[in-house]
C-alpha cells in the first residue's frame, strides 16, 4: 500500500510517486520520526447519530473503516458496538461516501467531519429494500 505519511505529505514534490508510510520521513530527514516530532496528530470529528467524537488519528495511517469502528465503539461504550452493529460506511457532509479501505491521511484533512453510516441509514436510503 503506497501512501505519504502526514509528516511528509506537504513536502512531497508534485508528480512524485507516493512514498511508503514513514519511509518518507526517513528519506527527507535522514532519521525516522519520533514521538517528539513537532507535527501534531490528526483529529477527525466522527458523527454517530446525534453524538460527535473527536478522534485522534496520529499520523493518519489507519484505514477509514477503523475510524468508523472507533465512532461506533465510542457511541455504544457499554456493549462496544453490539447495539448499532457493524458500520455500513462513512460519508462526508456533502454525502460523498468514502472507500472504507482507503487510508485516513490520504482522504481527509485534520479537523474534517465524517458521518458513520449505520444499517438503518443504508436501509432508508435504499427505500427500505
Task: Characterise this structure.
The chain has 129 residues and is α/β, with parallel strands linked by helices. The chain has 4 helices and 7 strands. The radius of gyration is 17 Å and the shape is globular. The strands form 2 sheets. A 5-stranded mixed beta sheet has the order 4-3-7-5-6. A two-stranded parallel sheet has the order 1-2. Strand 5 and strand 6 form a beta hairpin.
Strand order of the largest sheet: 4-3-7-5-6
Estimate percent helicity.
10-25%
Approximately what portion of the residues adopt beta-strand conformation? Answer: 15-25%
User: Helix/strand/pairing class, anyone?
Assistant: alpha/beta
Order of helices and strands: EEHEEHEEHEH
**Can you tell me the residue ranges where pLDDT is under 50 for at least 5 consecutive residues?**
10-37
How would you characterize the largest beta sheet? Answer: 5 strands, mixed
Envelope shape = globular
What is the total tally of β strands? 7
Number of helices: 4
**What is the straight-line distance between the termini?**
36 Å
Which whole number gives the mean pLDDT?
A: 78
Backbone CA Rg: 17 Å
